[in-house]
Amino acid sequence: MSTLPNCPKCNSEYTYEDGLMLVCPECAHEWNSNSEEVNEDVLVVKDANGNVLQNGDSVTIIKDLKVKGASSALKKGTKVKNIKLVEGDHNIDCKIDGFGAMSLKSEFVKKI
């Protein structure tokens, strides 16, 4: 009986080989069986200028943004402190003074 490594994503012991790839039936993660190092999925979010953003960064809005359900828009130049990066289309969660909790797209902000 051969011993295959546990899944690097969910640590499941029920991995199996599919050609050159290893597959986890529990989380559907696939990885190369020849690879020595484990590549974790790292969330990389870049601002409008291509700078890499990190949790806790401060950013500035570069374009007036209409806010659904609000009477006014977020104005260009609004500073946002202590952002949190998340996966999805709107990949920045933050709190903006006067608006509250918001989700923003990274393409409409620049790092301060």
UniProtKB/TrEMBL annotation:
Top-level division of the source organism's lineage: Bacteria
Family: Belongs to the YjdM family.
Domain (Protein YjdM N-terminal): residue spans on this chain: 3-32
Organism the protein comes from: Clostridium thermobutyricum
Segments forming domain Protein YjdM C-terminal: 45-111
Pfam families: YjdM (PF03831), Zn_Ribbon_YjdM (PF08274)
Lineage: Bacteria, Bacillati, Bacillota, Clostridia, Eubacteriales
Identification of the protein by name: Protein YjdM
InterPro entries linked: YjdM, YjdM_C, YjdM_N
